[in-house]
Design brief:
The longest helix has 27 residues, at 65-91. 27% of the residues lie in helices and 23% in strands. The protein has 19 helices and 34 strands. The two termini are 17 Å apart. Strands 1, 2, 3, 4, 7, 8, 9, 10, 18, 19, 21 and 34 form a twelve-stranded mixed beta sheet that branches. The chain has 821 residues and is an alpha+beta fold. Helix 1 packs across helix 5, helix 4 (118-126) packs across helix 6 and helix 14 crosses helix 16.
Amino acid sequence: MLRKACAALMVLALVGCGDDDGDPEVDAGPVTDGGPGADAGPRTGYEATIVRTTYGIPHVSADNWGDLGFGAGYAYAEDNFCVIMREVIAAQGETLRWFGEEDGDLAGDVIYRYINTDETVQEDFLDAASEDLQELLEGYAAGLSAYLEDTGGAELAEDDPRGDPGCRGADWVRPITALDLGKVYRKLIVRASTGALRSLVLLAEPPMMASAREPVLESTPDFHREALNLPPPEAMGSNAYAIGGDASQTGRGILLGNPHFPWRGSLRWYVQHLTVEGDYDVMGASLQGVPLVNIGFNEDLAWSHTVSTGQRFTFYALELDPADPFSYRFGDEMRRIEAVDVPVEVLEPDGSVTTRTETIYTSHYGPIVELGPINDIFAGWPNSAGEVFTFRDANIDNARALDQFLSMGRSKSIDELEDALRLVGLPWVNTIAADREGNAFYGDVTVVPGVEEGDFAGCVTSPSVRLLNLNGSAALDGSNPDCAWNAGTDAPDDILGFDRLPRLRTRSYVSNSNDSYWLSNPDNLLTGFSPLIGLEEVEQSLRTRLGFVKAEERLAGTDGLGEAGFTVENLQESMYANRDLAWELAGEDVLALCDATEAWDAAECDGEAISESPTEAASACGILRAWDGLYETTSVGAGLWNEVWLRLRRTDGLWATPFDATDPVNTPRDLDEEDADVANAVRCALGASVDFLVDEGIPLDRPWGEVQFRPIEGGDPIPIHGGSGRSTFSVISSRFVEGEGYSDIPTGNSYIQTVTWTDDPDCPDAYNVLTYSQSTNPSSPHYADQTRLYADETWNDVPYCAADVAAEEISRKTVSVSLTD
């Protein structure tokens, strides 16, 4: 069991900071542990070295896993303590207790108090981890807490409109324990399952209780993605390329990682370099408060992740006893739906704290859910078919995720990476990787319920179950024992095992942009896998298609970037090219229809004028014709096209050439301008876009960097390049702010890295940029420095080997602490 060392933490040896000559003061506090795996008896303290290089990137080195965790936790806390502290509150189910109903999350508090009990997290999650990981987590918690103790909270971020909410002086700030971290990680692991369904769990009420609770989620009967709390792919997705030796000019592997993750909150990335000599030496990015590298590289291997299309749960329809809504049939027996009371503390407006009791109802599969927000046919307990829905979460027992990242970081080749992935611990991301020897790899090796295509045959019986499957969610007959998940011989927790998951290894290239495994390379389509992982022979997103268009042009040398084949340099140029495939496919046809519009004030759009600003609308054609087709900060016309495509993209029958599964990269295409409805949709989209920009006071010819930017209080705004992701590869999913422009950037390009290798046997050739920078503290010099780097379309040539780290060192310190009973 993890020792509760942090609870007894007393800082006896404070931080020793380096002087101008770079010589640190090293505290001699007692640290008795030896190297990795050493049995040195009870731990008496921690010690680690933190060297920071350009842009504030910490390189943390230590003799063992506990010390590494301590140094990593301390370094992270210097930049972002308030982020992890706030996430601890959320994972503990205490947001209403500290932030009140206005800023709290009732459904989250209920579900995380339910699944994250101290006993469950300790025994089923933390104690199931490897010894190295347990030591790392203990040390990390100790490092976070030591920073808080050392500073007394005086250096914590304050509330500031430029950054995440601060926590200086907040009464909810306290030392953090390994148990706290376990709850945070478990919340992250079930993000796409129990976490996503939390509002639907709270809505579920048996008949006698149905009027007692106010709905927490409005009905969205048109489709279910919003109801399931799942963001659109462009908002929470990624791109990645792994280039094999046959596709690179050097014969070495090359990797591009380009996740589109949030710019604020607990899903921001944090760049770090973590080293336990002789055991682990990995650099890259980690999600907030994670003491291992999630996306990164070592001397021989580099990898990235993209959000997978796989499903992490299945719904089950339970056939209820007509005389007892708490009783359901399971085979030849009747089982009970249990009620679990969950107390939640609430901070009232007058400052008092009250306790509210909410109830979760559970079957033997998991919680009961109210699916009325997906479609009215599913509504009720019972619904119109005499059923109630429940779900089983494939990640609820996943205690393997952190050890999965640990073993991946230790891997030195694609062979070793594949062996590591047999653990099947990644909760919801694909893996794309390349190695020094020129091997490339794609795999959706993630936690997926053990359900194959054939398992649906006798398990989709009622109309509601059939409709739920048609709507894109896996649903089965929960009253039939034969519809249980089928684990296979190589999988834990009844999930699909490694050998039943899609993978592609090649010396050409692989790519993924959040579409299914099916199209990972146009010449090597992957087929025959469970539909719960993804769909085959279906139309791909424009972002996915553009990724492959760019790759095929690069192999042919037709993209204007020089000799055929990939290099790090041309991959970086391609990343920042800011192309828009929708414009490339439809732009000329849109311009023709624009030029042919004779009267912009004609009542052709549902009886309304095409545009309320006919003069400005008439100028739109020329502005779009002069546009360079890119989302560069200097591009004039990008703002107008961004609005047009937003309105036009979902038009029925838009393309004249339909999707062809034998040519998924190049179809559908050719705007069907001969179709009167399509032509009218183009004119209406143009007019509405012009009206929107005119009403907001934004000139149609304003450069994109003056429309999309990151505000900096007290400084000049930083222009941001990249498009929405609806039809671009480089993604910035910005939101429009009235009177400003697209100045609110919740997600988009985040931690971008390119990695390859030369003849140097130890040092990879790596470059990266963290678009929003390392620190959420607006007073930090590393609050926006990399944002400016990104805005200039440049990269940080990152130091990995010791000599390079020393050459870029900007600070050095040894941190240590002694532990007492």
